[in-house]
Amino acid sequence: MTNSLVPPAGPQRVLALAQLTNSVGDGAYYVTSALYFTHVVGLAPARVGLGLTVAWAVGSLVGVPLGRLADRRGARGTAVLLALATGLAVASFLIVRDFVPFVVAACAYASAQSGLAAARQALLAGLVPAGERTGLLAHLQSTLNAGLAVGAGVGGLALHAGTRAAYLGVFALDAVSFVVCAGLLVRLPAVVPVHKGRGKRRDPGVLRDRPYALLTLLNTVLLLRMPLLSLGLPLWIAERTDAPAWLVSALFVLNTGAVMVFQVRMARGVTGIASATRAVRRSGWVMLAACAVFALSAGASPWPAVGALVVGAVLQVAAEMGQSAGSWQLSFELAPADRVGEYQGFFGTGVTVARTLGPLVLTSLLLGWGTAGWLLLGGATLVASYAMGPATRRAHASRTDVRPPAPVN
To answer: Which structural domain range is residue 396 located in?
Structure first.
């Protein structure tokens, strides 16, 4: 793997540029959408939350069939169409004026985004050798964070302006970003469909692949950390510590910057199943340490609390990068070669579930139980990270029963 933060020229760099393009638009959308829907469209905050929950639930359900479509009809063409569909869904927000159209548009947006993620993974698997995929995913994660940071800055300008035109400009930017993303993806070589569906009647598909489903479930537990920076820590800082409020923004910048700079390096040693499971186990211990340090900030005077929270955030982002690299490798290694899109669509539902249930879990644990809640969160992460080992062995054994065994590093 190259030491450069920029992927090698060719398909890998085009994939990174496509990621950068639409992440800039998404970054602007993420920081402005809530206020747009409540202040400009006039929807009640509770209705916005309900609509987005419904939308992402629908998106998680359609990710698998859209991933299967990428396998059967071609990953590049499917990814291009879904990128255009995402842009169209974002554009439809510009004319939404009531709750029901908002839910319909949000469902279209979430479905297209979920399908696009699965199709991109199938495209990546078809264009990039197996040994280079985790490294490229690390590049893409760094690129994603860079784009989100730039987009968030653009969105901040719109928030500062506070006008309807500024908000509409952000949504138009996001829509255009997906059109540009589609234009970049269409430049990639075509990937020949590898799963035609013939002779597969007795193949139950990913939904009945119990070993892979268990792996996805355990990964979902590990992903409960996702709402930590956006919800768990801000509430913890405000309710349980004497740390200044500006620390919330500082910790977000620390996390984003660390992923941009170090994610590629953290993924460098993850090259197979064995190294992936080791990375996930290590991340479990680091996350437990992070939770313990976060808990120390309660009741401390302001600057010791700041110190504990910063150290905890450093440990947390280290755990995040290790867990991400390990789970990426496992999700590809344990998916049948002819059904990567379908399996990645299913594995990606863990992100949606974590984002949906994470806020409830984190607020109940951290604000309700305090220090004990932090330790329970860290303990659950450690248990899930260790359980990934036997779950991986079981999933790998199920693959070798039906096809020649892949070498295990």
So the answer is: 206-400
Q: Which residues of 330-354 are buried (b: 16+ CB within 10 A; e: fewer)?
A: bbbbbbbeebbbbbbbbbbbbbbbb
- The backbone region for 192, taken as left when phi is positive above 0, alpha when psi lies in -120 to 50, beta otherwise, is beta
Residue 35 binned pLDDT confidence (cut-offs 50, 70, 90): confident
- So what's the pLDDT on residue 401? 46
Same domain? For 38 and 150 the reply is yes
* Whole-Å CA distances, 282 to 11, 229, 273, 321: 32, 21, 14, 11
Tally the domains of the chain: 2
Same domain, 259 and 153: no
Structural domain includes residue 89 = yes
| Whether residue 92 has pLDDT greater than 80 | yes
Tell me the CATH number at 306. Answer: 1.20.1250.20
Structural domain includes residue 169: yes
Highest mean pLDDT of the ranges 271-280, 328-337, 349-358: 271-280
